[in-house]
Design goal:
The protein has about 200 residues and is mainly beta. The protein has helices at about 1-25, 190-195; strands at about 50-60, 60-80, 85-90, 105-110, 115-125, 125-135, 140-145, 150-160, 165-170, 175-190. It has one domain (about 1-195): Lipocalin, CATH 2.40.128.
């Protein structure tokens, strides 16, 4: 219960940042605090603004991704708390064209005691605060899971050309991990998501 209260207060404290900074489309995404450890760079790839292409499994071969884009969303991230945390916003659709689109927010903090990322996620269609942990594993991917329990396998991949993706897998009938969704992120110039 204490963790839930703490994270709820954390989200409430960051709410003005999410509202004002992104509404004004500031090109200042902040910088990491000099006291932060090396591990804090693990999420640096997501700082900025991104167009998100949503991919589903290929109906012809459910173990691979379809080339078809089933949706387009937007993601923005910046450093907060004087560079000691990261706040990122998710938009189901371009908020300029669809002002009532659903949206969500993550607050990411590096826990120096437990050496793990602690994340709080909240979404307008499901306002419950989800407490998430995240870590970099030996395969070079950042994995994340809900502390209350998770039936998904979720991780981030970075690609040589600079874009990245959030991959979600679920168990198939044979109990093996199978693709469920791929959110592929392509960097936009500052403020471009509001213009296009």
């Amino acid at each position: 219960m204490t963790k839930r209260i703490t994270w709820t207060l954390s989200l409430l404290a960051c709410a003005p940042l999410a509202t004002s900074a992104f509404a004004e489309l500031s090109c200042d995404y902040g910088t990491p605090h000099p006291a932060m450890p090396e591990e804090f760079k693990q999420y640096a790839f997501m700082i900025g603004e991104y167009k998100i292409e949503v991919h589903r499994p290929d109906p012809e071969n459910v173990d691979t991704w379809s080339d078809t884009v089933s949706g387009e969303a937007f993601w923005r991230a910046r450093y907060i708390l004087d560079g000691m945390g990261i706040l990122d916003e998710w938009f189901d659709r371009n908020p300029n064209e669809f002002p009532n689109t659903q949206r969500g927010v993550n607050v990411r903090l590096w826990d120096t005691k437990d050496n793990i990322w602690k994340v709080a996620w909240q979404y307008t269609a499901d306002p419950e605060v989800h407490i998430i942990e995240s870590e970099l594993r030996d395969d070079g991917r950042l994995y994340l899971w809900r502390v209350a329990g998770d039936t998904r396998n979720v991780y981030f991949e970075e690609y040589a050309d600079g874009h990245w993706a959030r991959i979600q897998e679920e168990r198939n009938e044979d109990g093996e991990w199978a693709p469920r969704s791929k959110l592929e992120a392509f960097r936009l110039s500052c403020g471009q998501s509001a213009k296009n």
